[in-house]
Every structure is written in structure tokens, then in C-alpha cells.
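Q: Two folds, back to back.
A: First:
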Amino acid sequence: MASLLERLSKFITKNAQQTAAEYNRAIYQYLGESILWNPENDRSYIDEGYRKNATVYSLINIITKAATTIPFQVYEKQSENDLKRYKALTSGVMDSSTMYRAKMLQKDALVEVQDTPLHQLLDRPNAAQSYNSWLTELIAFGKLTGNRYIYGIGPDSGPNEGKYSELYVLPSQVVEIVSNGIMQPVKEYRIEYNGTYSMPADCILHIKDFNPYYDGTGTHLYGQSPLRAGLRSLTTNNEAVTTGVKYLQNQTARGVLMSEEGDLNEVQAQQLKDKFRQQYQGANNGGDVIITPKKLSWVNFGLNAADVSLIEQYNASIKDICNIFNVPVQLLNNTDASTYNNMKEAKKALYQNAVIPELVKLRDELNRWLVPKYGDNLYLDFDFTAIPELQEENDKVVQQLSAAWWITPNEKRAVMNYGKDEDTPAMDDYYIPSNLLPVSNQDIEIPEPAPMAVDIEAEKQLIKEALKDIVVNAETVEVKAKVPGMSDVYTTEEEAEARAEELGGSGTHQHTFDGEEVYMPFNTHAEYEEAIAESKDEISDKLKAALQKKTNDHNEEVGNDNSKRTTLSTLFEVYKRGVGAYRTNPESVRPTVQGPEQWAMARVNSYLYALKNGKFRGGKHDTDLLPAEHPESSKETSKAESYDDYPQAASNNAKRMLGWIEKYGRDVVTAGTNVGLARAQQLSSREPISLDVLKRTRSYLERAKMYSTIDPKYKDEPWLDNGYVAYNLWGGEAMRGYANKKLAELEDNA
């Protein structure tokens, strides 16, 4: 005989089961072989939305056109754990930083494969569609109805059994779900279109948007249309357009012209009307003054308050519909705020909030339903690095990668989509930050600082041999050997000049080491040491950010005019002087100034004003920090000497290189530093160049003259020859000949 506890336990278990069964029936209250009707009127969303509403039509086209520009790729899985992290990272909001982190994870998780049957299927899903048109239909139906149906057709026998030879997108508005009860919620799908067609559930991929509507009839198995949430906005938008059309079609008179002296008979009224039309209508009479022999008054028939309100509601409904589809309203070109900057940000937001989430959803579902049919180890993904709007911060990423010594050069190339260099073993090694020597190469000694007894030429040769062909920022550069015990020593004047600009100055000076001329930043070594000392001054993150913004905004406004540009280090020096003046000379400070920081920032603003406008508002200050070319600069310079008689061929060479950069983009034409690009802009605009610039130009062109002709391997694509492009940005052979001749004349005259 069962104990009381056993009976009680069975009773509780039985009732728990009954409760669970009742719950299930409440949620899944299906009848066997019953059609689950979609409570959403998908047909109306298509008819009243896409077909009749210009806003919805435009938004769907914006999303689909953007999505179809992103290519798909097929990979083999290498690491499931890395793949999980990669999927998690790409499922959130994608910015440039996230994209490149994902690219690094992808390298360990996946290996790309080519020309698989899956490639062939997706490149041409069916005989009537390309990949782009197929994907457009799939996304468009999803955005309109919340449901996407893919029907796969394949052979029932043979070596390709289980694989699909064709994929079709089914029109969501005519698809119905057939249930077989709780145990088989989705038995098959039916299409009611010129007859009834049934398709097994396993031949259909149904990708649906979230639907929270559980009514016990299984309707939650359909996705909810985004337009369901914006139904009122859609209705308002359509009604406003309809009302506007009716108003234009059925316009009455625009007003009434009334006589104040008495009634007009019918003939007089017609005569007055005809005369009014003849004399005062038409473009030639716009703004004219009407003079009549009688006292007349005009009563206008304008828009009433309801009409004005309808217009406001129409504009508001457009914003609501855009928000529903996660598309910035600026992309509809119907806003006064459509400037270049916010259009650029709007395009980025389009990809981040609308396109990428849609493609991620498709990616995950296709990897669940379609890809395993072609191999358990395959993975389908979209190449989000192809989105140009997410590649704006490439320079920042390159800087981060350059400082990441724990990443090999080949791994950096992979992140930047330049492929691996299989022919150079050094590209798979790690390089320590001090002087970029391969850790694994035991034959190379890292020189200690200071000992001048070192064979410099031997050390240079070792370094060049170890690091030849290293790619930085997708550009092959010659690694310049530095003098042991010293920093900022370069073998070209261009590099030294660029370093001087980084430190907030300009100019270069020369040293001779073991019979070889090398270059350092600034005109004298004393200026260089002073700049290095200043660069070591501490600056808070908050202040640095504020001064950097002022620097960027100012330089963007003044362009490439070197006499007006500034640097972060220069503004920091002005700021420090302002703080010092506040503390050492408080009587000069206005009573309204509340602290040294405010006074220092006011001094920075005054300096920027003088830099931009060529004069100070009040008293002069910090004139020694102004560029030598500036009219208020106190620097001793040959700024009065400038030359604009260089040959037109030099300008043409610079223009041609800039044209290549504009045509092919910096991702392809990677040659040229900021200094070289600035020099090309100067030459192409035929701006006068100073004596110092002329000397630097000759020095660079003489050292780089081996690049005066195109490398034969680049004869069909000369813009890929980095040496040739960089050489001609400085004016090329024409400029070299001019610089040598001009400087020789000046020396003779002196």
C-alpha cells in the first residue's frame, strides 16, 4: 500500500501535468489540419504602403539598394569558440572599431573558400533572378509584412539529393501556415494564387519579425509588419496626400473682388473680370500695383486652420515612418538640415541601424537552414568591411595597428583587406616597439643606446635586410635607419619636415654621421630640443580634447594655407603662456575672468583669430609662435622671397597625381604623405613657394629621382607605383630641373 507521501506526490505531479497541458492548449490552441489565418493584412500593407505611399516606397528602396551593395562570402569554420565571439560582436551596432575587431576574430574563426556549389546557387538563385534582385525581394517583403519566405527546390535523388538547385522568394501576402496541432505547429505552407499550392514545411525558410500577439490561435507564428506599429502614421500620410490632390483638382476661385459703391450687373462684372485677367495676370505682372476707377475690396480664399494642421501632421508622419524603418529622415532629401556632414552621418546610421541588422538576421537563418545542406563546416557571411561609410576612420585604425606590436604585419594586412604576403617570412613575425626588429631572428643584435663605436653602416644594413618589404598602411616604404642613441633622425628631408609638423613647428637641419647626411626636425637643434621638452609637458585629457577640437576646426576652415594652420602643441603653448600671465601679471586680467583656465582659453581664441585674419583684435602676443609665413610673425625668415615661375609641367604632374587619388581613392592610391599632398595642392594651384620650400623640394626630388620613371610591373596601372606617385606629387622631373636651376641662379647672384 502506497504511503500517504507517495500518493500526495503523485497527486501533485498529475495536477502539475494538467496545469502544463492547459497552459499549452491556451497558447497553442490549434485544430489538426487547420489553416492559421494571419491577422495582419499584409496585402493592405503592400497596397497602401509600398504601392501608394511615396515615403514607404522610398524607404524600402533605400534599404534594399544599400543592402545589395554588400557582398556575401562563404567560409570554412576553424574555431567554434572564436566564431561565437565573432557572431556576438557583429550582431550589435557596427562601427569602424567594431568592424576591425570582428575582422581579427574572423581570421581565427573562418577561412574563405571559393567556387562552392553554395556560391553558384546564391549568385543565381533561380533562372529568372540574379542575387541582387532575389535579395531585394526578400528584404522588401520582410520590411513590408514582417515575413520572408524562401522556397527551395532540388532533386529528390542522385548525388545532389538534399541540396537546392533553385531558391524562390514567395510573396508574403499570399502565404498561409497550415498547422497539425501542438505536436507540429507548422505542417506545411499554402499559397492561394490562381489556385491552391501546398509545400512541405522543410522546403520553406520562414524568417519572421517578432510578434508578441499570442491569442491562442497560433497567429504569433506570423511576423508583425513594421507598418502595423505605424498604421496611424501611414494612414495620416496617405490621407494628407489624398486631400492635397483633391484640393488641387477641385480648386474654386482664389478670392472675391467686391465693389464698395454698389452692385455690379452681370455685364460689368464680366468686363471687370476680363480686364483684370488681361492686365494683371502672368509672369510679367508679378509684383505689379493694381489701380482701379472704382472702390474695390478683395476677399482671399486661403488655407484654413484644418488644412495647415494636416500639412503639419503629414510632415510628422514622414518622420514617424522613417523611425519605424530606422532610416534617417535626411536621406529622403526633404529636410533643411541636409548638410554634407549630417548626410554622411545619416548614411552611416542607415547601415548601422537598418541594413546590417537585417543582413545579420538573414545570415543567421541561412546558416541554420540552407548552408548545412552543402557542408556542416561551412559558414555564410556578409562582408561588412565593404561599406565605405564605416571606413572613414581608417587612418585611426592604421595608427592603432602600427602601435600593436603583438600583431604580425600579415595579420594587419588581413585586417585592412590587403591579403597575406606569403613570399616574405618576416611578415609573420612579431616586432618589438623599440626598433622593429624580429624577435625570432637571433642573428640580429638590438643596438644599445649611446655607444658610437658601433659600425653604423653594418647596423643599417642588418636592419634594412631584416625589415625589407614590410608593409605599413598598405604602402611599401623604405625603412630609414636611425643613428644609435638618437631619435627623430631621418634619411629624407620630407620625413624630418613631417616630424617637425607633428611637434608643432617646421623646417629641418642636417647632421653628418659617418660621411652620410641625415636630417632632423626644425631649423636648428636647439629648436628641436626645446620642442621635445615642450611635448613632454603634461596635458589633461579634457584640455587635450578641447584644444584638439579647436585645432581641427581651425585647420578645416583655413584649408592648406600654411601661413594660417596650427597644431595642438602650438595651442597648448599659447594656453600655458596664458596661465602664466594670469598668475604673474594678475592686474592685466579683466575682473570678469574667473580663473587662469578661462584667461588661457581666451588667449588661445585670440591667437586663432590673428592666425586666421592676419591681425590681432587688440595687443599682440605669441607672435613667435605664428608660422614664419604669417604677416604678424616675429620669426626671422626668408618669407618675403617666393617664386611662382616654376614650369607648368610641374603643376600638371601634381594635378595628374591628385586626379588619380580622386578617381581611385586612397584605398588604391596610397602613396604620398600629408606634406607631399600639401605640396601637390600648392603646385596644382600655382601658389608661390618660399625659398625654404624650394630647397626642401630640390632635396627630396634629388634623393627620389630613381622614381622618375614608372616601374615596368606597373606600366598598365601606374597609380599603384608608390615611388612614382610620391615623386610626381612634388612636381616630378620638371620641378627637379627648375629647382636646381633656380637655386643655382640664386647662389650665383648671392
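A: Second:
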Amino acid sequence: MRSQNGIFQLHNPPLDNYNLLLQETLFHNANGYIGVRSAFEEGYPEGYQTLRGQYINGFYDITEMEPPERLFGLIDEKQVMLNVRDTQSIKLFVDDEEFSMFTGTVMSHRRWVDTNRGVTGRHVHWLSPLGKEVEITIIRMASFTQLSLFTIEYQVKLLNQPAVIMFQSSHNGMVLNHYDPLEPSRSEQVLYLNPAESELMGDASYITSVTTESGLSVCTAVVNFLEGEEQRQIFTGNNNITDQISRTAEIQQTVRLIKYAVFCDSIRFGICREAAAMEMDKARLLTIEELYRRQADYMNDYWDKCLVEIEGDDDSSVAVRYSMFQLLQAVGKDPYCNVPAKGLSGERYEGHYFWDTEMYIQPFFTVTEPAYTRTLIEFRYRTLPCAIENARLLGHKTGALYPWRTIMGRECSGYFPAGAAQYHINGDIAYSIIAYYLATGDLDFLRCKGAEIIWQTARIWIDAGHFYKGQFHINTVTGPDEYSCLVNNNYYTNLLAKYHLEWAAKLYELLKETDCPAIGRIGLHEEEVVRFREASRAVFLPYDEELGINPQDDSFLSKPRMDLSCIHKDDYPLMLHYHPVHLYRHQICKQPDTILAHFILEDAQSEQVMLNSYQYYEKITTHDSSLSSSIFSIMAARLGLCEKALGYFELSAQVDLKDRFRTTIQGINAANLGGIYMAVVYGFGGLRLKESGLHLRPRLPKKWQSYRFKICYRNTRIIVAVEKDQTVLTRESGPAVNLYIEDVEYRLEDVLVVSRARPKHEGR
């Protein structure tokens, strides 16, 4: 994919089925509330597969999930994100010839994402079978200023002869979720969404649907405008409404159809049919040009806040900008949703939210648009009652335990060894809340909501762990590495628990003299806080004296290594070719576990131990997860291994843009997109949020001439420019701040220039 000035383009992209599916993902439109895959408006010929989907974040149905064994507490139902009504279909006829990319002659074809304007587009120069030559330009937008709104602008220009231009614009109420054979928890295609009512009101069509089990409803509304309209017919039937509009056009004349579609669900809007009418009236007050202007203004403000520029490496610049755009499209904009693993670009993982949000996506927003991080935390607060229920299901008499994968708060994973046993999710969520506080100083939010989450989740550590020979152990858990399950004293889990418990006690001291409603509401008392402190101080952190590393868990080093050199490339990922028990018996890592712990809490160990651990785990990590390469990049940069860091960064950059895992056809890998940003700012930039303040440890790979990024810390906007021999920091707005560069404290008043130190391992 080429990029120029923030516009990502494909010229004459392949039209085979695989590449069409990939383009549906790469050029999808979303705004955090709705998402629309970029299938051709006119459709594909018979025999082509399409994942023609439109989604609402957090809108779901419930379906049964048969557990393999009837044991207590195993999950027997789950939530599924739904493919809602199809509003993107438009067929074009030039006289009686139907436009298709697969008939006549496509003289040129271009697809693009314009990250400056927040739109996507297609441009086609087409010669019909009977010789009519036309130019077609189609622009799509999911509005950031009216989240319910999706628009299509369809332009047709006649080049060699006059003709009758006819559009058939459909509003289809009969759609299904797509069956994905690669999704192990999906055994069949299920009808989740049932049409309830189709109606016409003036020139607007409305289709209301209800879910089968969850009791939710959704209404979609569509209006079509044709400039210079001559004839219009509307066809209805089988919950499909087609608006057929036509007019005669002359040579060099452009005919333009504007299609407005709004989506309203009962979660946010209550009576969704009434809300859809109101949202459509709101949209119709503005021309498409005004809507584009507002979208461009929104994007301009966004790019101003999250600036990242790399000199000397165009491919890296492309990857970072594309990633940040997709993160904006994916992130939920209200407390009713989060960030699905595939964003709003596909149905893989069934729209579920994972710990990926806290550890890979929130770090981006926390230092650029912290209001989005706050909203994501509010989602966790909203689902806290479900986390409390989940804790009781797993035998805990107190506290809250968040699920591994969910939509509305309840666990959706039926495989507990790699799901419910991932207790680190509590620590991940607590870590993200603390990071938000360290970046913003927003103690009031902690007082009202954040602290309650931290305290309720901290209680689980006390109940799940125990003291043994003076140390606090946490047994039978699964860390981030899903190739080692149900282990004792997972280093990552234990280290996060230590940090979590320490902050639970700190926040109590900070808030006990304030009007903090949670303290009384949850019955938190001094004796319990004392237990938090005692456990935190005594948490056992595995360490091997001989190797000078932190073992991943108590038993990890006692297992034999798998010989990766004997594994054929087609046998990756290993989880699809080896029984889980076989993997659990070996030293093999799907993704970084201990290495991730060293990144987020680097002060827990010496640099030598982190280097030893990095070198050890690098040899046994398969990178079967898209979450893997970015963390290895970050830690390589932290250790001064800049060229190695760049190599891992480039692997992360290829995950979606080059579909490195052959999974992007099913949707973007949202967490990896956050990892790409982190690899630059937290990796090469060395950014860390600590209690002592903002820390930077800049590194510059040889390939890059320089780079710069903008962050927000304590309401101060800071531009960090890393050059060959110096780092230049500029206070763009906000008060002066103290910060640390290479652990040396400085005060940033206006402009600060610091000579850049070269780490001893640089160049390795």
C-alpha cells in the first residue's frame, strides 16, 4: 500500500477472492460505534466469498455454548457481536448495462483511505461491454461527529456518450453473521437478529430488528438523494427496501447519489425506532460537504494531538499513521463498549473484548487522548457487577474477577485453562487505571470509580494467593503466554499482583480522608489494607541464580525445550497443530510473558537480569500471536539493541498491511496496531509513566534519521524530537513540568535540549 500525505492507496488492486476480502478489512469504515466492511457496493459474482458486515460496538445476542464436560462453573453461553442490517448495497446501471468490476473492461481502479479527511474511496474507469465509458467515484464515511451516521457518496461521470443512469440502493433486513471455521467456539451459522418491522416514512426507510435472546433491538434508517432526480420507484418485500432512482445525463456530466444511513440500538438510545428518526433528521440538516468539513476538522484535531513522524523510513511512517487511524476507528466512544479484538472490521473473536485493550491500546490513548482511556475504564466500571459475579462463580467469596473475553461483562471463553485462569487480567486493568492517574493526575476519577475497581480486584489476590514459608504465592494461573497453562507463580501475574496490591494500599491512604463513596460501599477497612501491604511486600518473584533470569513460572525451567528448528513453517501456529497438553509440557512461548513484565514494570529487576531474560526467551518464543513482536521490539530498545528492536518493529508493522498471519481478511489486529505505536513511543522513545514522573530513554535506530512524537502529560502537550546526537523537548501548551531523561531530572519550561547518550548495547 502506497502512502502520500496521509492518503493510503492501492492502484489496480487484485480482484481475486483473497485480496478482495483483505481490502474489505483494510478499507473499512468505523468510528468506535459502527463499523462497515468495505465490500463492493455492487457486490461480487456468484462463487465469490464476502464478509459483507456492518456492526455496532457492544450490540450482541446470547447463544448457547455446549461445554465438553458437565462440570461446575464451565461457561455454557456467550455473547456474540452481530452483523446488523446491510445499508451499503448500491447497484449502478448505465442504460441497461449493470456495472461490475468483472464485466466489460476496468481501465483503472484505485482504492484509498484518506486519514486527513476520515474517509475511504474507490475510483474506477470502466468501459462497459457495449462501449460506454464512465468514471465512478465512491466515497464512504463513518462520522466521528455523529456516531450513528454512515454515508456513501456515489458519483458517475459519462465520458463518451449520453445515457440513463440508474441506481438501485438497497436497505436489506435479511443478513446473517458469518460462519468462521477458524473460530473454534463457532460450530454453525445462527440467526441472531430477527426483523420486526419495515416501513417507509416519506423518503426514508426504517428496518427495526430484535435479537433472539438478549432482548435488544436495533433500527437502521436510510435516505437516498439524487441530484436532478427524474424518476423514482421503491420496491419492498422480504424485509428488503430498494430505492430505484434514475435520470438522463449528458457527456461529461456527473450524476451524484448521496446515501445517508443511521444506526440506533436500544442499549444507547432506548426506543431505537424513534431515535433513528431523530438521528436521521439531525443528519439531513447538513449537506454532505458540511459533514465532510466537520469530519476533517475532527481528524485535524486528532492528528495534532497524536503526532508521530519518522524521517528516513517511509514504510515505518506509513505503518504508524495507519495504525493510529485504525485505533481511532476501533476505540469505543461511550461506556457501553470497549475495543473488540478485530475492531469493528470483522467478526473473528465474535466482537469480544480482551485484556489487549488495557495493555496494548490504552497506552496509546493515555498519553494522547486520555479522555478515551477514561471512557474505556468507565466500561470496566459499568461491568464491575458482572466481574463480582464471575469471582463468585470461581469460588471467591469477595472481590471481582474480570473475564478473559466478553462483550457485556460475563465470561465468553469455554476453555478455562487459557481463559478464566488468566487472573492477570485483574492486574492489567488495575495497571491501566494507575497509568491513567499517573498521566493525568485525575484523582477525582479514581475517587468516584477507578479506586473501586482497584480495590475489588485486589481482593482476589488475597483470596487466590497464600503465604508459604514467609512468601506470598499465587498458584494455578495462566499468564499471557497461552502455551503454559495452570502454573504456579507466573512471574508476570505475580509482579502485577505485587504492583496492584501496593497501589490498592496507596490509594486507600490517598482517599480515606476524602469523600470516597466506594470505601463505605464495598466495606473496605484498615485491616484489609494491611493485608494488601503485607501480601505485596511478600509476593514471590521467581528467579534463577544460575541463569540470572526470571523464570516464567515455578516449573518452566524444569521442562524440556521444543526443538523449533525441526518444526515445519506450515505447522505454525503450534496451537493448531499440537495438542495443548503437549505444548504445556515444554519450554515454548507463544508470546512474551516475562518480557512483557520487564517492559511494564522495569524497576522490579536489574538491567542485567532483563537482558539475560530477553536473550533466553527470545530463543523459545514462536511469535504465534500478533501481540508478540511489538513487545520484543520495545524491550530490545530498552536494552539498547536498536537494530534488533527495528527488526521486530517491522514485523509488527507487516501484520495487517501485509497480512503476515493471513488473518487480516477477518479483520484488523487491533492490539498489534497499539503495539506498533508503543514500539515507537514506549520502545525507541523509552516513555514510562512512573510515580516519580514522566520518564524518557530515547533510542535511534541507524535507519532512521530522526523521529518525533507528541504526548500529553498532566495537561501539558509535549513534542519530543529524537535526533542523532540530541533530544529536543518542546512545551507546546500547558504548565511547565518536571520529567526524567535517562533517569536524570529536568524541568521543561519552553524548550529543552539534552545530549543523547548511546547505550552500551546499541548496534547489536
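Q: And?
A: The longest strand covers residues 254-265.
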